[in-house]
């Protein structure tokens, strides 16, 4: 159990509790099968809300570190195979040695843009200029809805690249996806409103909504994206549907055109809202870029949301939402009470990065690069794990969904790989109630060559086969 000193030093939130247990397990201090304190006991000891401990335990279970055994309590997953740490003499592959930045953060992580290909010099140049030109009046509170030139630059980008008709006054700049969801629901939702989410769906979206919406329901996803027939049959009365139409997260399928129209018609009839999460819509490879669902929305029922985490860098923490015209006044009024505006400097830097055209050039390059890196990763997977995985769709997104052809050991494999600093996600953790599929969700955007991908996977190949043979 964490000590009182640890509690004091860590200003306990769910993240600190999560990290504490994860570290204890990875360091071997907590062993597979060990019991951990119950949520009630730990919350009492740490003097934090039960929800805080619950949140940490849920993530630890989702990642496969913990298993809950009902009345028998919670344990460290007995099936967790703790392999030798990545620093063991045979572990680090030579090919990865010249990648210090990424190496420090673990490989194959989901949703990280290619850090080696980002035009950092340009970014720094603009940053310097912007910092030096800050005027005294800009040192006062930043505008709540965002820096005006950035709102305009985002509106033009959405019009040109995502096929929208967006006015600058419709853009509300936020710190990203979760801030978007929180703000939309705070402004537009009533406490009794039903909210729908895809199943499987983005792990952190699901976790956030579970905590902030009392009436959350799930809609299955198939080859054509979210199942709108199901939605209409069981949840036609819902007020919000959060969807990822361009590349479903995590399955990466694209919502079919008939379903797009069906979903829009539902929202129009019910006067409900569709929240479109277009997190990586730019990255479609074999066909042309797919226009956003919002571009078909003739009745202004779609609240479009986007982020610069995938196109620039996650650490920037800048995202945005496009307010339907009829809601702008409500967003402005409540926004003034709930939000404080983002720091001005990064917004100014980004605005210039967009208006000078660097952003567009960068995305264009990344489309080509990601396509190459994706195929390197697929080749390496087949090379190191012949016959083990099946990949259904290969034309979009920033990750590969490698379904296990047999078995259900995705949690165990992901935990094993994490021991070797390969941070993939077990697909089954993203399901709530729909029949689970098993596999790994693998980021490939920072893979620089087939050899590097092969070397990374070679770290874990023998141990993975051994695990599956048990
Ligand atoms: C499905 C999905 N939506 C949104 C985001 C972006 O989140 P944020 O804007 O908070 O970085 C991600 C990032 O991984 C994602 O996977």
SSE topology sketch:
Blueprint: H1 4-10, H2 14-26, E1 35-36, H3 39-46, H4 50-62, E2 66-68, E3 74-76, H5 100-105, H6 120-132, H7 148-161, E4 171-174, H8 177-188, E5 195-199, H9 203-212, E6 216-222, E7 225-226, H10 228-235, E8 240-243, H11 257-270, E9 273-277, E10 302-307, E11 319-322, H12 328-338, H13 344-355, H14 358-384, E12 389-390, E13 399-404, H15 410-419, E14 425-426, E15 439-443, H16 450-469
Parallel strand pairs: 5-6, 5-8, 8-9, 9-10
Antiparallel strand pairs: 1-3, 2-3, 4-11, 6-7, 10-11, 12-13, 13-15, 14-15
Helix pairs in contact: 2-4, 3-4, 6-13, 7-13, 8-9, 8-12, 14-16, 15-16
The structure holds pyridoxal-5'-phosphate.
